[in-house]
Amino acid sequence: MKLALVKLQFRSSHIMIRRAYGVLKNQYKYSQQFKELQIDNVPDLPYHETVPLAWQSFKGTNTIDETKAPMVMLHGILGHKQNFSSVGRHICSISKRDVVAVDMRNHGATMLAAPHDYMSMTRDAIAFVESNFQKPVVLAGYSMGAKVAMLATLFRPELFEKLVVIDNSPVDQPLESQFLTILVGMAYVERDESVKDLRGSSLIRRIDQILAPFEKRKIVRQYLTSSLNRKSTEEDKNSGRTYKVPILNFLKDRTLEQLELWPDEADGLQYSGPVRVMRGLKSPFVTDTNLKRDFPKYFPHVSVTDFNAGHWLMSEQPERFVHQLLAFLER
Questions:
Q1: Domain extent at residue 251
Q2: Strand 99-102 relative to strand 55-57: parallel, antiparallel, unpaired?
Q3: Angle at 279 between CA 185 and CA 186, to 5 degrees
Q4: In the chain, which ranges are E strands?
Q5: Which residue range or ranges hold the AB hydrolase-1 domain (predicted)?
Q6: Tens digit of pLDDT for each residue in 49-108?
Q7: Could you tell me if 18 and 66 lie in one domain?
Q8: Residue 2 lies inside a defined structural domain of this protein
Q9: N vs C: which end of the chain shows fewer Cβ within 10 Å?
């Protein structure tokens, strides 16, 4: 993979300084919980600069028009490739193009690896596209995956025909405090011994009881159950983890602060292909200022579709999401 090393190095010291206030603020807010959860004692994840991504095609028995660019979809934090199964099947059936979704590092069936930052995930995504496709693809990303998708098109524009950005912006942006609260709740699930022996509906009920004080929205708690470790492989069975995602490592490594950033390595780069931004008007992640000032710096041919929804716009308005995505793909 031909990526300039100067562009894909680890965070420089001035970025670490930029993070300092958020790190200290969150550390103090949850210091007691971190002690109870023994976060400092969590073993480190193995380091891997690039990891192979697990993936799934949604073409099924559909006839594929080989002249059309395949679409690759990247999920958000705590998600996995199955989040796109309904959307992917509809897009594939109607547009006659192959639709593929991947599991990002530390999610789903993809291996656990440090660091969990945008440059590492971008390397993973680029390597996946290079290895699996012989022509440019449409790249679509949601939330965390949206920033990865933007970065991939900036670093390797020749690999991508179009870009779909779902509710995120190319800027440093604080995540809502609720994201950290959810991680802390999931960490208590990981540390709960009673969970280890439960299965089926009993397991789901117990997890819901633990999470309820941390996340009031039932739809979000239901979404989090999709990240449970189903112990389908020997590695999963032996891991001892309740979730596929390494929740305790994410807290130890303060991964959320990494995900707030937009890497300086992207400065001065542009992707000249068509870009569609899909934003939830009730979500804080794509503002009018972002659209007028920030996107055009990197993406001169950007358009926007607004949804009267929050950050979970694909779940809140699935039919309109598919309709708008198809319109962009086929234009």
A1: 177-255
A2: antiparallel
A3: 10
A4: 55-57, 71-74, 99-102, 137-142, 160-166, 275-280, 302-307
A5: 70-316
A6: 999 999 999 998 889 999 999 999 999 999 999 999 999 999 999 999 999 999 999 999
A7: yes
A8: no
A9: C
